[in-house]
């Protein structure tokens, strides 16, 4: 079981994974802020946040700074209403990642989170997680090449594993599915995701529809995007077939695209 340590300094709260750091480097967040101009790392956008990839003591890590999307995000970019530390977005994502790792689900290892109280009612925050080495997003892959039906089936099986554990990804799309060089499939970016408490699975259909819409949007934007109806048929075959398999089934596949 993962061991964590939590501490507070003035208006800043930090929670970190002791299996990664025996003593947490206090400047790790600040030295890798996305606004820094001297970063020796790549930056990108991911979900509802800006991310920075970096390495620390041979650990491949990714830092995400939370910010709002949509119209509200244009007015209030990265500040949220504080209603308790356990309810902050970064705290909830860290705890959910830890719970999913305990279940054996293919997600990044949570490393640390920081919540900064900017006032009595507002906060900002970041999360650091393990970076999945030698991987690309499904969207990146499909922009340049085909993915085999076998891989589509495997993706369906992986999504079904999450659903069997009552995990609803808050933004299930082609950019939040990773495939590494060994063909292993991971889900990332669990901001605003939910672990349901009951077996009512009506939400599963909406979650799958969200993924399909994201794939179709990519196809509309880029005619060369490698997604066809038969690929979704293969995905559904894997998803439906996984209903009768153990929830801990191996997600590794031969990703011969």
Per-chain topology:
Elements: E1 4-9, E2 12-17, H1 28-31, E3 43-46, E4 49-56, E5 59-66, H2 70-75, E6 80-81, H3 89-102, E7 110-117, E8 122-130, E9 135-137, H4 138-144, H5 149-164, E10 167-168, E11 177-180, E12 185-187, E13 194-195, H6 202-221, H7 229-241
Antiparallel strand pairs: 1-2, 2-7, 3-4, 4-5, 5-8, 6-8, 7-8, 9-11, 10-13, 11-12
Q: How would you describe the overall organization of this protein?
A:
With 257 residues, the protein is an alpha+beta fold. The protein folds into two domains: 124 residues, 2-Layer Sandwich (Phosphorylase Kinase, domain 1), CATH 3.30.200; 110 residues, Transferase(Phosphotransferase) domain 1 (Transferase(Phosphotransferase), domain 1, Orthogonal Bundle), CATH 1.10.510. It is 31% helix and 25% strand. It contains seven helices and 13 strands. The strands form three sheets. Strands 1, 2, 3, 4, 5, 6, 7 and 8 form an eight-stranded antiparallel beta sheet that branches. Helix 5 crosses helix 7. The radius of gyration is 19 Å and the shape is globular. It starts with a strand and ends in a 16-residue tail after the last helix.
């Amino acid at each position: 079981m993962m061991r964590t340590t939590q501490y507070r300094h003035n208006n800043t709260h930090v929670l970190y994974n002791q299996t990664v750091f025996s003593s947490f480097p206090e400047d790790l967040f600040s030295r890798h802020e996305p606004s820094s101009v001297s970063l020796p790392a790549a930056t990108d956008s991911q979900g509802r946040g800006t991310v920075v990839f970096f390495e620390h003591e041979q650990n491949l890590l990714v830092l995400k700074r939370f910010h709002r999307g949509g119209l509200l995000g244009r007015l209030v970019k990265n500040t949220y209403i504080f209603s308790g530390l356990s309810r902050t977005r970064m705290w909830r994502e860290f705890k959910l990642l830890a719970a999913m790792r305990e279940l054996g689900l293919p997600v990044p290892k949570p490393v640390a989170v920081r919540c900064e109280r900017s006032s009595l009612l507002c906060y900002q925050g970041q999360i650091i997680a393990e970076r999945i080495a030698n991987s690309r997003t499904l969207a990146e892959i499909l922009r340049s090449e085909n993915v085999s039906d076998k891989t589509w089936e495997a993706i369906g099986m992986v999504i079904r594993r999450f659903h069997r554990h009552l995990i609803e990804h808050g933004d299930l799309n082609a950019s939040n599915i990773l495939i590494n060089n060994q063909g292993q499939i991971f889900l990332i970016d669990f901001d605003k995701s939910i672990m349901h408490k009951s077996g009512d699975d009506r939400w599963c259909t909406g979650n799958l529809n969200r993924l399909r819409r994201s794939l179709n949007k990519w196809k509309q934007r880029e005619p060369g995007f490698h997604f066809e109806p038969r690929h979704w048929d293969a995905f559904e075959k894997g998803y439906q077939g996984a209903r009768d398999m153990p929830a801990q089934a191996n997600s590794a596949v031969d990703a011969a695209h």
